[in-house]
């Protein structure tokens, strides 16, 4: 009995975690909603740092991860190397893998930050390590400059393989999958790779979906743009980018859920210019959101021509407040910087519900309740 009592007395009632590449804290909001307690945020971007300070002034904030070792980090937050770290979480910059940028992968300066993150997380001996990243990580190449065109194809996925082998070499069990945030309650189609590593060598289960496209498997239906933004007042939407007039003239002809393909043929060519003759779906051009579906993936600006994010009815892009709702930030959350900085911070975030689902998977695994997703 004494040993039981002592373990109860000496174990903390909450799960602690360290957050790296914290951004505007989208993922963190989900973890914290599940009861996880942040011991530290680490973020390099100055505007994101301001956002963090405005919203979470009491949590220690470090800047560039490259300036710290695991020992430095423990020292900064007042812990010793005998203190238990439950979770280390981070989405190392994805530009190195993102399909939106050239894939230099791990040789890119930012790719090295990825390896530094793995080193710190394993040196801290965290019980769980979570890595969140873009879909491009699945096909990213480790050291692409060592390959020619032909061998580059065979090398696809070697960056992910490197990450998994690195974690396994330190005794971690690793599971990973590609998840669509809409299946976890976010009003947005947003795919993210989530890697969960467990220090005891076991493999965490996959995240359990709570929503599905047409309520399949008895799950709730996907949340929609209407549910996310329709109650925002015009005052709340004042912080908003503008479309150039030459794009607006086409938007006036498009309804909710439509894009350039819904214009009359002669206007399609005029609106698209040279892009009309390019291959590919091009569905992001002159795109109005559909009220009754989740939003497409939010990007760092709602007015980039190939990924337009226009309001379902009004002749304007999504406002900052609408962006924040779709990424599941609470209405009181403050974003630092100019309009362009605010869109960028929100567009780079992870929806809170995906963070919450990650937390639930860790709690279930830790308590031995490995729940199987619906067949």
From TrEMBL:
The active site is at 94. It catalyses: a 2'-deoxycytidine in DNA + S-adenosyl-L-methionine = a 5-methyl-2'-deoxycytidine in DNA + S-adenosyl-L-homocysteine + H(+). Keywords: Methyltransferase, Restriction system, S-adenosyl-L-methionine, Transferase. Signal peptide: none annotated. GO terms for biological process: DNA restriction-modification system; methylation; negative regulation of gene expression via chromosomal CpG island methylation. InterPro entries: C5-Methyltransferase, C5_DNA_meth_AS, C5_MeTfrase, SAM-dependent_MTases_sf. The keyword S-adenosyl-L-methionine applies. GO terms for molecular function: DNA (cytosine-5-)-methyltransferase activity; DNA binding. Its EC number is 2.1.1.37. This is Cytosine-specific methyltransferase. It comes from Acinetobacter bohemicus.
